[in-house]
Amino acid sequence: MNEVFVYILLFVALFFEVFVLLVFLEKRGEIFSPKKKSVTKRLLPAVTVMVPVFNEEKTVAKTLNSLLALDYPKSKLEILVINDGSTDNTQTVLDAFESHPCITLLTKENGGKHTALNYGLQFAKGDIVGCLDADSDVAPDALLHIVHSFIDDKEAMAVVPAIKVGSAHNTLQLTQQIEYTLSIFMRKIMSLIGSIFVTPGPFSFFRREVFSIVGPYRHAHNTEDLEICLRMQEHNMKIINAHEAVVYTVSPNTLKKLYKQRVRWIYGFLRNMKDYYRSFFFNPKHGNLGLFILPISTFSIYSAIYFAALLVVNSVLKIINKVGEYMVTGWHFDIGMPTFDFSWFYVSSSVPVIVSFAMIALVFCMLCAGLALSKEKFRISRGLIFYTFVYGFISTYWLLSASIKALLAKKPSWR
Amino acid sequence: MKKVVWKTYVIAFVITSAIFAVSFGLSNAISEKRIQEIRSIENKISVDILSIETQFSLLEDLSCGEIGDSFLSRELASIGSRLQMMESERNPDDPEFLNLKKYYSLLLIKDQLLTKKIAEKCGDNTITILYFYSNREDDCEDCSKQGAVLTRLQELYPEIRVYPFDYYLDTPAIEALRSVHRIDAEFPALKIKNTTYYGLKTLADLEELIPELEEIKKAREEMEALKNATSTDQVE
Fold first, then answer.
1. Which of A195, A329, A360 to mutate to test the interface with B (most CBs of B within 10 A)?
2. Which residues does B contribute to its contact with A (CB < 8 Å)?
3. pLDDT digits (tens, 9 = 90+) for A357-384
4. d(CA A240, CA A291)
5. Which domains does chain B have, with CATH numbers?
């Protein structure tokens, strides 16, 4: 029974990998040589970038400087900085930007990111409105790519960028670089099948009318970027990805910070699914998103927990057995060392092992596709090794924690 | 209503099924190759046994020193570990696997009988242990521990020959062995010399039950001391 269950989980996981790679192959022409309309800068639309800020004294200056360095007519660029009741020196840092004609500083009492964005929306004048987290910075041509995507696709109501890790100083951040490269690939695929379900805080843009149709941001278990995206999907709005629009974000540099971030994301996803978007599941009315992407995303969380639990239980049983053996044979150093000669004979050839190798190979294909989209080259790095052999196991920790919190409706802390 | 890429789902399903089919095929092919390898080792041992038996028949004309050392135990142990590996990956009730296991048990019995005969004729005092275990679920919780003890015992005393038998292996030779040695269905069971012991025996227990082990240990220590003394003399 257990064996059949493992086979089913592996089949579904492999099916997902094959599916996304197939979409990539089918749409490669569209991805790499899209039909672009050329627009003179004079005809570019007015854009508002909202920057909600809460205690970001260390990063906000870099964020604003990158916005000011955008290759976009300054007369058509409005930057709204919303200080959401910061208690550190953020306001002092912001004051230095007050005189810039593009920047408007707004201050309000602390109420959470969604309230800051909604406050900013009241002042936004742009035809296209977006946001940028104050711990991220953008490539100079990012906004042009985003706006061109709106111009090229009149049906697009929101455009999301490609997010990269800004600077990686340790193994954990290098590992997240690999993860983000895979996300670039996944976001593109989701875009191609109309299944984007997060308009991320860093540099996602919306046509102004989106907010009058779907309403303002909501708290949504601290994942307002996911909730507004799903609300747009509910209204059959098209959301696309501009993979050439690059935004750099600060990645957590410690396991504790990463854990908190991921628990918040996964908790938000699970709670939003449970509370508001359960009707999407297996509903062809919502296209590929409802029929496959949301169910498989939820399924992947639980299957990862299942496999990790299986691994932990087996490891604990093995340790108990080993200790039992030590107790009857006496403690010695060479127990556990293979007493037989090593040969190919002892390499496991069970079906789950072979399928797992196939799955790892496909993940590498996805990574290569992500690198191609990012215009980067493949190289074996510390991050890649850590991602391949370790990350899957440690990520189970936050998957499990977020699932339990979601089950108990226990809110995770923001930071 | 939004567009659903049905065609892509169907193709993905076909490809996934194909990868699974190839995985099953590959797994079976490797298992088959393993079976062939075990079979070839078993055949080799069978020839070796025949050769020793022939030598043994000629024993009257030969001196004990002329009977070749067959190293069968080592090769049999190699099959044992290979079968154990296969058992963990394949269905233990697979008829092909059971055939290999039966043949392996027969070779063990033959080797044990031959060792006994040589010991009788040549006055060799090789210690043999017959170990009966059960693979049935919840039948023998201590069998894996007993296996570890016997493996460790052989590591410490390579002079000892351990012959493991699956008590319930459906073959007349095992049935005969069980009835000759009057072994009950109680596990783990060890037949050492003429006595049968039931229940888990630790390494310390076995060292107590087989006093010869102490002699072997002493002889080895004396030999090592002598070797060390000789090498020190050479250096001087």
1. A329
2. 1-5, 8-9, 11-13, 15-16, 19-20, 23-24, 26-27, 30-31, 34, 37, 77-78, 81-82, 85, 89, 144-146, 148-149, 151-152, 155, 200, 202-204
3. 999 999 999 999 999 999 999 888 899 9
4. 19
5. 35-122 (no CATH), 127-236 (3.40.30.10)
Amino acid A149 reads S
Round to whole Å and give the CA distance between B98 and A216. 69
> Which residue stretches of chain B are H helix?
6-57, 72-89, 95-122, 143-156, 172-180, 203-209, 212-235
CB A241 within 8 A of CB A159: yes
DSSP state, residue A252: P
- What is the SS3 assignment for A333? coil
CA distances (Å), origin A267, targets A310, A405, A408, B78? 23, 7, 11, 52
DSSP state of B187: S
Complex confidence, ipTM: 0.89
- Fill in the DSSP letter of residue B67: S
Tens of pLDDT, residues B53-101: 776 677 555 566 665 554 456 677 777 777 777 777 667 777 888 888 8
Name the token pair of B96. Answer: 């092909």
From B5, B85, B155, residue closest to A346, measured CB to CB: B85
**Integer Cα distance of A85 and A80 in angstroms:** 15
